[in-house]
Each structure stands twice: as structure tokens, then as C-alpha cells.
Amino acid sequence: MEKFEVKSQFYLNNQPFKIYAGAVHYFRLAPSEWEPTLRALKLSGLNTVETYIPWNVHEPVEGQFNFTGQADVREFVLLAQKLGLYVILRPSPYICAEWEFGGFPAWLLRYSDMLVRSNTPRFMSKVKAYYAELFKVLVPLQITHGGPVLMMQVENEYGSFGNDKAYLRAIKQLMLDNGVDVPLFTADGSWQQALAAGSLIDDDVLVTANFGSHSAENLAELQQFMTAHGKQWPLMCMEFWDGWFNRWQEEIIKRAASSFKTDLQELVDAGASFNLYMFRGGTNFGFYNGSSSRQAIDYPQVTSYDYDAILHEDGQPNAKLAELQAVLKVPAVMPDMPVVKAYPTTTATAQVRLIDVLDELGQVADSVTPLPMEQGSGYGYQLYQTTVVGQEQPEKLKLVDVADRADIYVNQKLVAMQYQASLGDEVEVPLAAQNQLQILVENTGRVNYGQRLLSPTQSKGIRTGVVIDRHLHFGWRQWFIDFSRLSQVDWQTSATVQYGPTLTKFNFDCSERHGTYLDCSQFGKGVVILNGHNLGRYWRAGPTQTLYIPKDFLKLGQNELVVFETTEKAITQVQFSDQPKEADGCEN
């Protein structure tokens, strides 16, 4: 059985060992893409694959655990071992990763006393229950048990959030209690305050740093921190950022291959170990994109997690692959290229209005005040409806504590769309004697980093209520929209009214399965579901204009694709592409 140790250097089977790793998130790739990605990783000169483990993927509903399909972390790790790779796992409750709520499941927010990333009874009891199931899967994969896992993470960039050592020690103890016996580590920013707040160096937990440039300076900071605590440990950059993520309504961020090569060479020349973040980024399928936060406003990330990484979102090599091979002095061999081709243009076969299929597509609930989204799944969309008595004159209407985007309809007419800075603005609306008020609210993605993880804004939907004139309006019905119920929709339903979001169905045949892109440049804003798989969000605002489709989501023969369009944009056909498309300029 192999042995891995952390001393003045890393030792593998009693021999000095440098970790040259690359990040691949199994949950952001279709399972058929795991093996070619890992083969490319090994071909590039790396010896280890690193991955986060998102809590919300593995326990999407409290007490219901999922380790199958894209969530089959065991199969992913065993595949890496089969290919001769080692593995680093990061199973901390919080992962960041530009992932919805930093990996926390939305159902945590149903508890009024929930304080994430803290040594509080409610939060720790939920982590304990999750870990009891998670480590049944992970423990046998450790190198001490014949598996390929070298190390596991206690917490991630905690020094950029808090300094509660009791919390860090409680997480560490839970890992030990559940059978973890490989070396543990923390990862933080490389400055002294972050390392001091986020590490467990005095508890002999390895300290690593995250950065993407100025390698010598950052390694010196890490060395200084270790020396001050009397530790002689190997230096490791746990996240060497080779690219970056992207947000809606902003330009695409890319990193030059030459810059990447220069800074990585400096890291290697210093004798440090590293993990490239990312080796292949993948896709934020479904409603799992995270959100950045600036002051009081959240800025959601796009569906594509291409990251300008070594391999692109669809597996095609970036120019950085050749630079990586040059730095590591391995043959400049290109991996097998994945097949990415366009399918023929397809015209719509049916269309219904959301308002006409609400009972089929949504779980309905009546309440005195509007219910937040967490009373349902916590993700996606929720439609609120009520009846308002008017005085045959315009009235002021105001949404109080709403997140994140709201379309307001009065008597079947769109009167306002509010998003970010305009949320909660007072709207003057015409009110007859009897009025129907409908509000479609979208959760565009919870923040994944920083102190706003604790903000009440991470509860989505209408949190307080709706004010008309000067009073809160009571008496609501709401539908928690669930796209897994699409099979219940009657596509022959005749539209009773011509307004609001639409669901448009397309049927097309595939004689062969391969990766492709759906061109969304002629759409407005919404999501696409293909054969039951939520491909993620699109938005004409840019910067991305396509959704990646892995071959796993397609069927030989008949396929069903549904576009949920929330604007008045007419959806009549879908086009495919063999490459991603970017917007000419970002819209507001």
C-alpha cells in the first residue's frame, strides 16, 4: 500500500514528491467527458487531479443524498486512479468555486437561526449529518486504504471570511471522526492576515496559498508565515489561477498564455508544488451558477465556466496547454480532440404560456404573506399571484425585500421589470376595481464568496411583502416552478391570454451523438431544458451567447428541447453551432 507524508517536503512512498495538479470538477462535466479530460491532464505533465465537493449537489434535499451520474465522485476518483493519477479532495462544507451559495444547499436557509461557516449548533448538526454520508464514500478512496487520495481540505479561504478557530477545529474533528486519516490542509489568500485567520497551523494542518501571479512574492509570504510558526513544510499554491470567471453584462475575461507561462515557470523554478485552477472549467448547468458581490449588489456569473483554462468548456485545448507542457518539459503532444459539431436548425413544434400550465409545472402554496423560494426548492423561478381591490385610479406599488429579478404584471400587462439597483423602486400602476397582480421572481444565483454569505439577501423571492399605497397586501398564491415536471405539461393547451413567459418545445432527431452548442443570440432571457437536463441560463445581455451541450444529454433518435423564455421575445426556431459565441457588446 502506498504512503503519502508531509514533512520538509512531500514524500510519496518515502521518496520526495512534487504535486503538479490540475482542477477538474466532476459535477461541471458530463460523465463521458471525465476520462478524456483526465487523459489530457496526465499528457500535459500533471500527476494529480484536484476537485471540490459541493454539498448542494450531494444533498439537494435535506436528508436525501445523491452520488450517482454527474454526482458520482467515487467513480471519478477511481477513474483517476485507473489512469495513474493521484487525487486531492476538498470536501469542506463551503467551496466557493463560483458555485451557487458557495456549495451550501438552499434548504439551510429555511432555518431562522442558521449561521453558515460557524461553530453554532444548527449549522454544525447539518454538517455532521452530511459528513456521515459523504465520508462513507470518500474514506475508502484514501491512499491509506488503497485509493489515490493524497490529502483533503478542512476549509476553503476561511481567512477571507472569519477567524473562528473553534469552527475550523470542529470541522477537522468531524473529518477525523468519520475516518479521514490522510494529511489535512487549508487554503487561503497569501497575505499574513488571511493565513493567520484561516489556517490551523498550530494544529499541524498544512497551510497552502491561492494566487495566480507574482509567484515568488506570494511564496515568500507563505514561507514567512510558516517560519514564524516554526514549521518547515513544502510550499504549495493550492489554486494557481490560469484564467478567470465571467459575469453577465460584462466583457469576457481572458489571460494571455505568455503571462500564464511566465508566472508558472517562476513557481516551478522555486521548487513549489501547485494545482492549476482550472485545468478544465466546465459548465454551471441548471441553476448552480454563483454570484459575485460588490457592496449591496450581487452580480451573477454566466453559465459557461470555461475559465479560459487549459482545456476549454467543450474540452478543446487552449494555447496554454502547449505552454504548460513546455514548462514541465514533457512532449508537446495534443490530446484526442473531442467532437463538437452543429446539428440542423429546428423549428418549434408547440408553445404554451407559463400562466396556462402553472399547476402542472409548479408546486402551489397559499399564504398570508408571500413565501420565499426556500419554501420550495430555493432555485430558479417563482410566480406570485393575488387579487387587488383598486379605486379606479393609479396607485403606488412597491416590492419589499425581493431577490433577484422581478417582472410585475397588472391585469396581464407587464408594468415593470426590476433588477439589481432598481429592485424595490416604487411603481405607479393603474388599478381598476378588481385587479390581478402577478410577479415572476428569478433567483439569479446566490453569492459564493465573502461576508454576504450571511446576508438576508441570500434568501430569494419576496421576503417581506408587497406594499400598495401605504399598506402591505395580504393573501397570496405562489407556484414554485419545477422544470423536472415538464412531462406533465399538456402541450395542446390553448392559450387563454397572450402575455407573460412562454415554454416552446422543439423535437429533433439525432443519428449520432456529439458535443454541440445551442445558439441563444436570438433569445431574450431564460433557461433551456434538453431531455430533462437543465442546460442553464441564457441572456441576450451577454457576454456569452451559447449554451454548451455534452453528448451525454442527447439521445439517438428523438430529442425534446424546451426553451423557457421570460421576455416577450418570440421563440420560433433553434440553431446549433460548433463553437461558442460571444456578444458583440454587453447590453444593460
TrEMBL record:
<keyword id="KW-0378">Hydrolase</keyword>
<keyword id="KW-0326">Glycosidase</keyword>
<feature type="domain" description="Glycoside hydrolase 35 catalytic">
    <location>
        <begin position="9"/>
        <end position="329"/>
    </location>
</feature>
<dbReference type="InterPro" id="IPR019801">
    <property type="entry name" value="Glyco_hydro_35_CS"/>
</dbReference>
<dbReference type="InterPro" id="IPR008979">
    <property type="entry name" value="Galactose-bd-like_sf"/>
</dbReference>
<feature type="domain" description="Beta-galactosidase galactose-binding">
    <location>
        <begin position="501"/>
        <end position="559"/>
    </location>
</feature>
<feature type="domain" description="Beta-galactosidase 1-like first all-beta">
    <location>
        <begin position="373"/>
        <end position="478"/>
    </location>
</feature>
<dbReference type="InterPro" id="IPR048913">
    <property type="entry name" value="BetaGal_gal-bd"/>
</dbReference>
<dbReference type="Pfam" id="PF21467">
    <property type="entry name" value="BetaGal_gal-bd"/>
</dbReference>
<protein>
    <submittedName>
        <fullName>Beta-galactosidase family protein</fullName>
    </submittedName>
</protein>
<dbReference type="Pfam" id="PF01301">
    <property type="entry name" value="Glyco_hydro_35"/>
</dbReference>
<dbReference type="InterPro" id="IPR001944">
    <property type="entry name" value="Glycoside_Hdrlase_35"/>
</dbReference>
<dbReference type="InterPro" id="IPR026283">
    <property type="entry name" value="B-gal_1-like"/>
</dbReference>
<dbReference type="InterPro" id="IPR017853">
    <property type="entry name" value="GH"/>
</dbReference>
<dbReference type="Pfam" id="PF21317">
    <property type="entry name" value="BetaGal_ABD_1"/>
</dbReference>
<comment type="similarity">
    <text>Belongs to the glycosyl hydrolase 35 family.</text>
</comment>
<dbReference type="InterPro" id="IPR031330">
    <property type="entry name" value="Gly_Hdrlase_35_cat"/>
</dbReference>
<dbReference type="InterPro" id="IPR048912">
    <property type="entry name" value="BetaGal1-like_ABD1"/>
</dbReference>
